[in-house]
Write a structure and sequence with these properties.
By secondary structure, the protein is an alpha/beta fold. Helix content is 40%, strand content 15%. Strand 6, helix 8 and strand 7 form a beta-alpha-beta unit.
Length: 299
Amino acid sequence: MRHVLDVGDLSPAELGALLDLAERPDPPRVLAGRGVALIFEKPSNRTRNAAEMAVVALGGHPIAIRGEEIGLGVRESPEDVVRVLARYHALVGARVADHSVLEAMARTGALPVVNLLSDLAHPTQAIADLLTLRRHWGSLAGRSLAWVGDGNNVARSLVIAAAMTGVEVRLASPAGYRLDGAVVDAARGLGGTVIEADRPADAVAGADAVATDVWVSMGQEAESAARMEAFAGYRVDAAMMRGAAAGAGFLHCLPAHRGVEVDAEVIDGPASLVWEQAGNRLPALRSLFEWLLGGQPCA
């Protein structure tokens, strides 16, 4: 039994196989007559819609469960929750506040567990991002991606995934908000090139794509004032994009705040890959569910 709690739970060959599976227009109905439980402690637009429709595309029946309906760690332990769900479902996906909840679920071995977002990682977003870039570029190896902004859970998973596929990453984050050094070391240990820049302009210079995320994520509202001050100068605007390579694309996992971390003329302009990126959440999740449930062996 396999779980995907972060993209590093996959080998480079397995990640490549998932990207190939995502391109298949007629996936097998490996979930015919089966259910998938989708737990959402945190609200979701793209993840919930993509996950539910991915299950439908594989012939299954999705059941979305709000966090307050089961009270993870309060009304019921994560272990008890997943052991019960295993009586009804083939797989569980969970969007949680604390990554340790996913780890507790996986340790039971009751059924495959997929991280739909935690405070530590967002692997399904990283798979969708790579799919978006591969479709835009034609191939991944040898390309470069600049990450401008918070070294958060999305950045963590994307940096590891990029290292596994030969994409160079340049990171620009203010002091105190940089990606954990252990993550950078892990990416380099996978053979990836990770460059930490002092200024956003240095990271973006000549990059084939530029990515960012919100400066204040869910649960960080109390830090809003400090974060807004720290990230001054990190907004992705047209001038910053002009420093990237000709034809460079722009990524944002959404939701976005125009005029804060990105200007409207960028996210709504010709460089934006954001809407394709959002749409690619569906084939990314579909391929992951198919692979976990034995639809096709890894490469």
